[in-house]
Structures
1.
Amino acid sequence: MNILISGDSFSDNKNPHAWPNYYEGHKVINRAVGCHSNLSISRTIIESVTESDIDFDYVICEWSTPMRASYKRFAPEPYQRIKHKECVGIASFENSDVYKSFEFYTSESVWLRTLENILRTQWFLETKKLKYKFFFGWNISFIEAIRFFPELSKLINFDNWWIHETPMGPPYPHAPFTEGSEEYSGMAEWCVDNGIELEPDGHPTNKGHEMFYKELASKWIYE
Amino acid sequence: MNKKILTSGCSFTSQLHPNDGGPWNRPKVDEGCPTWSDFLYKKGYDVVNIGFPTNANSSITRGLICKGKEFLDEGKEFSIIAQFSMAIRSEIFISSEESEDFDFYLPREFGGKHDFSWNLNNWKEEDFRKHFWILTGGNLGDDPFDNEYIVKKIKKWAKYFYNKEYQILNTLERIFDLQTFCINNNIPLKIFFLDGMDWDIDNFFYEEYFQTHFYKNLIDWDKIWFYHLKEDLILDKTRSVTRTLYGGMYEWMHEQIPDPKLRYKAIDDGHPSDYAHEKFVNDVILKWGVV
């Protein structure tokens, strides 16, 4: 089976123990890059399917925080996180300069872009009749997107998503990435709820990657 | 003849602004400055026009998908005709919750201090008190807008955020968004452009714009109407229209309507005349097979 993957550091195969590296006997093209924005994730999927000589059988997309933005494909994407209008690290927002101009950052606009990136990828894969699975690396507070854009959110085909139900519920004191508190959790919260600690920086441990693959990702491609 | 048609675009599609009737309560026909969309209505088509002067390609697409979904939810059958504008245009989102300068732009009728500016937009009137868009237009703040704060905002955006490659890629993505939305919902679609200037080889498929190239094979070109202008047109000492394979309404009207008095709404303005708009419907749009 030919599998295409994109996402951010939760899926980046720079970590040899990252979950995409467990697919044995399959050809895996992994375009995930640490700090990838949702725009970049969408573009890498569309570009790979369109430009590659490989006929993909399955596509897996790990979506990231809406606050990240994109620069140029062949330039390193600057890392950025913005919380409460304070920039942590080097910011990027569409053209990397939002850290100079926080006035241009609004939650609604970044959620709108994230919804559009998800929908563009979904519609692209569906018109190409490709099987796919989407999921969140961690709880990015997707409930905000639904609050801001209830009608647009209804266009998302959640039949092709894996979303972690949170049996333990919030809070997640050892999951520093976690932005939301209730619904639409992801890989990080799944690890915590299954008794697998995260790295101190909030990324899944090697054990977390392995279990995530065994319990979930390995099965998706046969659904 | 009463098939529903959803249309959008920039000032080549609607000259009405929120403070004079549109787009929320747009009359079915703008008798003062009718466009191709108005002439379609006059011919008996049930047209809903959400076009807006200064509109950018992102907001044109967003509006059509937003309104299109509303029609789908109501079980309506319809076609879409989208007039795309210049790729350079963008939009800046302003939110009452998060934008500290919200009040600088808010129009008087919504509790603000300023007259309604040409380049403020929202899809629904009732949302205006919560958020709206500042449309940058093609001159990125060099137009004489009536609110100095808007001019400053656009110029700041242009300084820090404007990137030609990004704008070009964004327009290709917006074409793709609209096409896939229509394909997935069986909505007949035709797109045409204001003009062909963005399609010059230096822009859309410029060899150093690495990300634009894969859209060549992704876009359904049959759903886009281009006008092939074979020769440069020298209009007068200062103005000309460049030959192109990717012309829009602008190139079409300059070649098809030689008399400038017949061609322009106002000779110093450049927008199509009523005659040009009606001729465009008769000679071009009605032959597409989407209405």
Note: Residues 164-184 of chain B form the longest helix (21 residues).
2.
Amino acid sequence: MWVVAENDHESADMSIQEQGISVPSASSSARFLIVTISGRYLALDTGSVEGVLTITELESDEDPAIQGVIDRTVSLVMQLGGSDVSTHPTTRVVMLADREMRGSIRVNEVHGILEIQQSQILPLPPQFSGVERDWYRGMILFEKSIAMILNPTWVLQMHAGSDAVQERETPRSSVDTWAIGVSNGRTC
Amino acid sequence: MLRTGETGKREATHSPWNFVVFSIGGRRLAVKTLEVAGISPWKPSIPVGSRTPFITSVVRQDQAILPVFDLASFLRLHVQGNHPLCLRIKHPLGDMVMCIDEEMPVLHTLDPAAIQAYRGKDISAEGSYANGLDEIPILALSQLGSCMK
């Protein structure tokens, strides 16, 4: 498993561990895939991540199910602002699933999997009173910044109205499979 | 609360009011000292794509994540200076921060008798006081939240 940080271990890279807010409890841990879109850290619950592939890998995959997921690539630019993720052969695509909905998002960078305690998930401040409350499930202190936890239901519902639900096997059994193949020197 | 009678004068008490006077876009504003949680150098905010008017980003201060109220945009002004400051204020919903001019805020003590109703309509204020020809509004921070919605 490729894990960029766990609360039980020291890590020079991760200021998240400075919190010391909660008593570690294995039963209340949560795992997130940390990605960057337009310079912003976003966190995706690994339970909703089916896999991560590059554009090249996606295009070479003849599995019609994967092609269907590519067709349902969601751009978050309109909602989150910033510039769209450019499409290069090495651009990574995160495939998401939530209940029977499936889709994908292009990301600028994949940082790895972060395991934290549920108590370390910070709620969106109540001053945010608009539709953004549906977009995020909370926030995580990450490095010297924060990562917003994306609500996969919201992301995938952007396509739910136009696409038929496609039942299929997942393109990769889990995000763990993808993680093994990725190395950017941040593994710990 | 301030009396809003024709005289525009608050009933005199013997307790002076303490304010922090700061500026945004060169315009001077005041908040009650008790409602100020801190002042620090401004760090770049993190946009969250919010649709809440004037609250579209957050800043991280140590282990806290605080919403940013864009008072400059609210007042249609631009923060001045290359080294703006971060004014952390206490709000009923939780602390918020505002980006203010780099000009160092000053403490100001005022006799309550000098406080009058704010005549402007551009921002919620608990009152104001005269500073030469300027009328300095004393921000009603709790109502800033209600006008965001």
Note: The helical segments of chain B are 71-74, 141-148.
